[in-house]
Amino acid sequence: MPDVLIKNVRLLLDHVLTPAEILIEDGRVIGISKEFRVSNLNETIDGKNAIAIPAGIDAHVHFRDPGMTYKESWYTGSCSAAAGGIATVLEHPNTLPPVIDKSGFNEKLKQARKKSVIDFGINGGVTNNLEKLSELWDLGAACFGEIFMAESTGGLNIDEKTLGSALSKIGKLGAVAAIHAEDDALRLLNEALLLHDQSDDVHSRIRPNECEEIAVRKCLAINASGAVPANLHFCHISTPEAVSLIEAERTKLKLQNPFKNESEKTGNAEKIGNTENEKNKKGSSSKNESVSTSSQVSLPTLRRITCEVTPHHLFLSTKDCGRLKTFGKMNPPLRDSKSASLMMNALNSGMINAVASDHAPHRSYEKETAMKAAPSGVPGVETLMPLLLAAVRKNMLSLERMVEVTSRNPARIFDLERVGKGFLKSGFDADILLFHPKEITTIKAKNLHSRCEWTPYEGMDGIFPVMTLSRGDVVWDGQQIIVKKGHGKFLAGAGKKEDGSDLEDWGDAEEDEEEEE
């Protein structure tokens, strides 16, 4: 029997915003129709004419737990994610201890199981631990990385020889290698040249566009020369030069790219908020006629090269360095406004495949120091979807493209489609974001939920969700988190061996109540 009915919402179906209802059973969507006639439901949710889209998948977060929970924790980070419309995260390995062996993996899994309010995957780290990669894959690592080609938070950067060996091992496993592409030699040279420079944009000049371009070129060459090349995913790509290299490599190798912009084939999706146009569109379903489509067949395993961009490399630039100062310091750094504009063009064209936050929080007192001494990283998991929805409202990209890069594509890149993620359709998890397109608000740190209590997007426009559902349960009701710690489910990677080792008692979630509050 169905558990939940969501009525009075609009869905993007066949490239048109269409009035519909969503029926949910056991946490999964079982039908989408113009109207259902059902009784004995546990819950009926009135969407009040909101638009429903798949909740976001943020494939790049650093929740700092374990080891640095004063910056963030699995509870505060996942609450922040849910309040921003994210229902799934992939957490990266540079914590204390780092996720570079069984002990580090299980410690993070223990904390996440106890605290997270949304579903999660855990990435395996790559350092001088090549003999541990198979072990991490067997434990259920979602992918490997980010693999640091240059110094960054956590000190997990590796040299080119180790990178080559790691990529070959990851290729043999059939896994994804997530790459942090910056050239350390150029970084070190520029640090020496700019030793006494204390200007607001010095971090961007120490790690210029060329720094990323060189690293991407090297990584592509190293991977291609390996015995079994890995599937590559470039994290937080920030320069048009790097995007061009990635696209050229795809073309040279004649790689299939299932993550291109599908809306290009049929025209842009209808612009949100245009009620009159919606009424005049043809093809709306008659009463009780199903408007759902069958689940798409999972793509075969093939060699892939994909990339993501962050909101800070789309919506911020070096023009903001004077305003943000150390609060705008991250790796890779802010780029000039022309680069940011070209990155948005690449996102729209399909050359960039996904958007992820690279949520990397530090407390204000850590940032309030000299530029070169300040830690790199900015929070962003709660503002990712609101910033993009506001960009849709401003016609910077289509709603359809926005959905592709925040749910469908991340699910396919990281094999989350296999576990029911990434689509708002029958058979998939009912991870749903409801929003009203005209409710544009000003982003303010005081209204956000990250423990770090600041945002680089202060004062910018955002459209926040009025509701976020995870597997059919309302996690965020527009005002507060309404599920308990531990609601989130571990999404094991395809290599997970079912040996029962993940079924141990993880302890009482309430034992950390004082620390979390």
From TrEMBL:
Listed Low complexity bias regions: 283-297
Positions of the UniProt region annotated as Disordered: 257-297, 491-517
Protein name listed in UniProt: Dihydroorotase
Entry's transmembrane regions: none
Keywords: Hydrolase, Metal-binding, Pyrimidine biosynthesis, Zinc
Protein encoded by which gene: lhyD
Residues annotated as binding Zn(2+) 2: 146, 180, 236
Family: Belongs to the metallo-dependent hydrolases superfamily. DHOase family. Class I DHOase subfamily.
HAMAP family the UniProt entry points to: PyrC_classI_A
Pathway annotation: Pyrimidine metabolism; UMP biosynthesis via de novo pathway; (S)-dihydroorotate from bicarbonate: step 3/3
Listed EC numbers: 3.5.2.3
Originating organism: Methanolapillus ohkumae
